[in-house]
């Protein structure tokens, strides 16, 4: 018998804006001015928050922090497109997604200041806390999608993760499970080219992360993660597909992490300043601003006023975040829906220890 081709598939790459801020007429989603403006404003607020958080860490006022500068588009557009019934499963670099879903600035600061209440914001029931172990949240998103399918809801689940997570077993298990059971799950890989200091080029032999979707029987697409219009188009398609019962999608968003992996990292050890500057030319703050200027939304005065507004909001949030006093025993309260007896006992012993230390003058 002659040899037969078993499978033939491909993945596409989507860009809507070029580097001069011109939109492809055939692909432009033609969002209204209010939506275009809101996306830019929330991304600017997220970047202002991000830079302030780094400053707080450097001056000893906040713990180790993972900057999201360069990742804002994917997080903000996703947060704005999702409905209340939809779930998100973020990493430690996805705080802009919380802001897009309405999280108060001060509460996000509180989380990074080590206060358990930080992400317990109004309406956060379907926003999972950041996952610190790499790729574990991808499985959670697949399971959440399966649960929503069993319940017959119209919700979707979104997993955010980086290129480094695609080398973990959890990534492959989650995609395989989601594809088999056609769960309404959207897997968003923000490929910033580095898993800490490990270049994507030595992490995978694939030309893209997106093509890994084909092995599991789901669509895969690569998108310019600096382009809000392109991200909107790709995400809208994936969300509609999930809500229609057609199963999961893998999206690879090409982004760049302008800052360090975390405030404990020195990126100059593994990448050049020339590379960073080349990516600055592609930044949404440059390209998307040009597009908004052509639409009559953006101007130098607009930018100046917006930055002033964002700075005031962030500075006020820092004051609130640093002044918030939390009962440290609350750390026991967020592990289970109904606290098991063993954990109740541990909490009581902890509270007694705190009381004894205060009496002895060892704590305030």
Keywords:
2 domains; 12 helices; 9% strand; single chain; Rossmann fold; 364 residues; alpha/beta
Describe the protein's architecture and organization.
- With 364 residues, the chain is α/β, with parallel strands linked by helices.
- The protein is 45% helix and 9% strand.
- It contains twelve helices and eight strands.
- A six-stranded parallel β-sheet has the order 1-7-8-4-3-2, sandwiched between helices. It has a two-stranded antiparallel ribbon with strand order 5-6.
- Strand 7 (220-224), helix 8 and strand 8 (249-254) form a beta-alpha-beta unit.
- Helix 2 (72-81) packs across helix 8 and helix 4 (105-112) crosses helix 11 (300-323).
- The longest helix is centred in the first third of the chain and has 26 residues, at 33-58.
- It is globular, with a radius of gyration of 22 Å.
- The model has no long low-confidence stretch (mean pLDDT 95).
Topology (SSEs and partners):
Layout lengths: L11 E3 L18 H26 L13 H10 L5 E3 L5 H6 L4 H8 L23 H16 L5 E6 L6 H13 L3 E7 L2 E2 L2 E2 L12 H5 L3 E5 L3 H16 L5 E6 L18 H8 L3 H11 L5 H24 L17 H19 L5
Parallel strand pairs: 1-7, 2-3, 3-4, 4-8, 7-8
Antiparallel strand pairs: 5-6
